[in-house]
Specification:
By secondary structure, this protein is α/β, with parallel strands linked by helices. It is built from eight helices and five strands. A five-stranded parallel beta sheet has the order 3-2-4-1-5, with helices on both faces. The longest helix has 24 residues.
């Protein structure tokens, strides 16, 4: 049972993962700011840094690699730079470039994730980047569940001068995706980014909606969607 003022805990795999990532980010930021001051880190600072990393669920092996890098740094600026580089080195093997395959035109990107993860904002930034790279981009407002979701995506479309295919709130999300892909094909767009409503994997009705969106897209392009981005 939660107290009246406490926030409800997220349930399901996506919810727990999102909560853990947020907790890790907060713990690391606070711990690093408190620990890294002026001068060379001494044994006490390294010990506290190790505790901070472990408490943030970084893991034993990763923590050992980070500490070894920090030990070789010099001064406050050097320590911060070494710490940043060590963290980047850990996650860099996991990164994958988003390559738009010209063989698929339009290249359909479906964006999914839990509620409040920042899907629509991510879409806006991604649209800006792709347009800067020379791609002709269109957006599909298939989050017809959340109030103001369509309007929010339209704002991003206006900022980036990118067309948005939308219907009213409560409309069939698959129908929006279908109309958007049809329009993208007719206008010779390079990329179509499909926004979707936030959901947990335990919400069978909403998960079935994703499958329906995929089926409807594949009526127009058997290979769509070509990329599915999970925003956490």
């Amino acid at each position: 049972m939660t107290s009246p003022g406490s926030a409800p805990q997220s349930t399901g795999l996506f919810g727990r993962l999102s909560d853990r990532l947020s907790a890790t980010r907060r713990a690391l930021a606070q711990g690093f700011n408190e620990l890294i001051g002026a001068g060379q880190p001494d044994a006490a600072v390294l010990e506290d840094l190790e505790a901070t990393l472990l408490q943030a669920d970084v893991g034993i092996d990763a923590t050992a690699r980070i500490l070894e890098t920090v030990k070789q740094s010099s001064g406050s600026a050097g320590t911060r730079a070494a710490l940043r580089q060590a963290l980047l080195d850990l996650i860099r093997p996991c990164q994958q470039p988003l390559a738009i395959d010209a063989a698929h035109r339009p290249y359909v990107i479906m964006v999914v994730g839990v509620n409040g993860a920042g899907k629509t904002t991510t879409i806006g930034k991604l649209a800006s980047r792709l347009k800067t790279e020379g791609h002709k981009v269109m957006l599909a407002a298939a989050d017809t569940f959340r109030a103001a979701a369509v309007e929010q995506l339209k704002v991003w479309g206006s900022r980036n001068d990118v067309p948005v295919i939308a219907q009213q709130t409560g409309a069939d999300a698959a129908a929006v995706a279908h109309d958007a892909l049809q329009a993208a094909q007719a206008r010779a767009a390079d990329v179509l980014i499909v926004d979707t409503a936030g959901r947990l994997h335990t919400q069978s009705g909403l998960m079935d909606e994703l499958k329906k969106i995929q089926r409807v897209l594949q009526k127009l392009d058997a290979t769509a969607p070509h990329e599915v981005l999970l925003v956490l």
